[in-house]
User: Which sequence fits this backbone?
């Protein structure tokens, strides 16, 4: 059997020598995005707990903490485990931990990191969590997951949330720490003013519920929410204590299209993430790259956009292929050359890769691992 | 830092104890699909070189070879490397190997496994391959990738293909072994007779080109093509020597919808692949599972279908969430219960996971690794 190394990379220093398709992060742009959000939240006196479901990468979470983040949001138990093993603390798990084996895995996590916060939206789940940790003598904090219009998880605002708060206060091993109110349905509304109006309307329900809970003697230290699309809108809300924005570090075609507070393209943050591909076919009116629907997210009604080229249209052409239709290409495209594309949607694109290749200019400076894929249970 | 194991799995024997979302293969169904295709190709005296881009798993490739497959198709250089390291031989790389580092990696592979076949569709690429292996004293076989209507890679049938064959015959280290003619645009045509007519029309171009090449003294031992949608159509073509079908081992929502030679649902092969999820939210008219657009392919205009449940509609509801709309559910759905779904499209769904959990009935019998994600270069 062949056991040799796959590629000799001692000599790889330049981006164009990377294996394709691969995921590339422009470090100058990434750092500029991290710095900008850090400065913004500091000035606005709102905490930042950025969402790691965007990057699934301990190296980036550490950079966010170094710049003052209050902690890190994660979506799944596997993300929480990977972050914790990487020394990342102050985790907020934004998905409900329901059923086995999630509850057992959560118990191990809160034993090690008692500051970990978990959302709940259901009294039966509260009972299950309470029963799981009671005998272990563990306590941890929970946030009420509030449905402020996304129609996904979360309990309804007002009385239903109050009843859940009362249920939590009877669970001796759990402490209510506040409310998680993420308006995912608002994040990508095109047009700044439309987005602003929708977000403030959604968050007003969260503030009213917070006030109701406070009136009844419940503790609501945290009111956490916000996306990259509303980072500069939601701090207007009196009572919002922290932002969960994630995509600002990378950006993508979708976020660029929603428009900013000034301008048609949303350019508050710079597109730092791209997929590098090779032109593997070239004929008169067509070029084909080796990056298809296993290389880009496909959950949006538009495809990737070329980074350093205009007048060509990318079309998905199978698992490993993308077709470039030549409308009026800004330059010639040669067989074998490398082309970069901004992904349509950053989070699920990152999810398709094992590593980020980190470049500064055209030099490959580092390589960061992306955690395992769905169902992740590293030592299973 | 926490370094403990993530899950204690010594006790996990039943499917419902698996971490979710995860990918489950029903071994009885998988084996039945493997056996059926093996018997079919034997009876029809056509070789089978199944496509491993469907499963990206050495364990499954071995099962295909054990049942008489002539070799294994792979789409990428990384797939070829993983298969070769796993002892899988007789590889046909169905994607053009253009540019560095692909050509260097290919050189290592053909040195170790000189029977490896690679497609070419361009004379410049032929020259690049020839130059790469000439000095190493290596020879290997190539197939002309023929565009029979997919409008992706491949050279045009007839004279252009003949000119490429002549170019190949001048490349001393390459040997023309035949033609690769994959009609990807035909694979999912709904309605057996429509699909049959389109596939035979497409493949007729390949046969004519083969005859042209033979007339000019070129060797065309192999004419390889066919999908799961046309496995029982293409052997009608006199001259087709092998089938490349891949999805027959798993099936998916898309293939089930195209219809079979008898019946509206294509049931020649049994759906053996599913995603196991947990119901993490339950309210009056809605259930939410923990499997969203990071757990299923999203490249088709329809979502996953529940495996053991009817009267509910799955809707994507974010990276980690799917919403079940209750039209007339065939039974109650409880918080915390586990539900299985057939993925919309099998290949890109497999690409989202690190492992298959293999079940027989409800017992977890084995766990098979899925190779690394895009840009794979294991020792990079």
Assistant:
């Amino acid at each position: 059997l062949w056991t040799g190394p796959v590629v000799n990379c001692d000599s790889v220093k330049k981006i164009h020598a990377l294996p394709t398709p691969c995921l590339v992060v422009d470090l100058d742009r990434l750092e500029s995005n991290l710095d900008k959000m850090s400065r913004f939240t500091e000035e606005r006196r709102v905490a930042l707990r950025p969402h790691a479901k965007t990057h699934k990468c301990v190296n980036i979470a550490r950079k966010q903490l170094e710049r003052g983040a209050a902690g890190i949001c994660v979506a799944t138990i596997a993300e929480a485990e990977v972050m914790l093993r990487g020394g990342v603390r102050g985790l907020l798990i934004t998905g409900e931990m329901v059923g086995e084996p999630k509850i057992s895995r959560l118990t191990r996590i809160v034993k090690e990191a008692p500051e970990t916060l978990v959302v709940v939206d259901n009294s039966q789940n509260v009972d299950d969590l309470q029963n799981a940790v009671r005998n272990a003598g563990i306590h941890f904090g929970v946030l009420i997951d509030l449905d402020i219009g996304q129609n996904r998880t979360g309990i309804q605002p007002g009385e239903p949330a109050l009843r859940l708060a009362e249920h939590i206060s009877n669970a001796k091993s759990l402490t209510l720490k506040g409310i998680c109110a993420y308006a995912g349905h608002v994040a990508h509304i095109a047009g700044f003013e439309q987005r602003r109006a929708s977000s403030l309307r959604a968050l007003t329900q969260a503030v009213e519920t917070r006030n109701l809970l406070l009136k009844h003697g419940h503790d609501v230290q945290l009111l956490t929410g916000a996306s990259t699309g509303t980072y500069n809108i939601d701090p207007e809300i009196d009572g919002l204590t922290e932002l969960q924005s994630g995509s600002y570090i990378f950006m993508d075609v979708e976020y660029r299209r929603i428009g900013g507070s000034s301008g048609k393209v949303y350019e508050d943050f710079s597109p730092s993430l791209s997929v590098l591909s090779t032109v593997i076919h070239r004929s008169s009116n067509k070029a084909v790259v080796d990056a298809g629907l296993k290389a880009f997210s496909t959950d949006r009604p538009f495809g990737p956009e070329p980074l350093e080229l205009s007048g060509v249209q990318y079309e998905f052409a199978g698992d490993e292929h993308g077709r470039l239709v030549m409308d009026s290409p800004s330059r010639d495209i040669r067989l074998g050359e490398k082309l970069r594309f901004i992904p349509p949607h950053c989070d699920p694109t990152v999810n398709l890769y094992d590593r980020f290749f980190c470049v500064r200019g055209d030099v490959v400076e580092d390589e960061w691992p992306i955690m395992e894929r769905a169902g992740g249970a590293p030592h299973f």
In short: Chain A touches chain B through 91 residues (CB under 8 Å). Chain A has a mean pLDDT of 94. Residues 192-215 of chain A form the longest helix (24 residues).
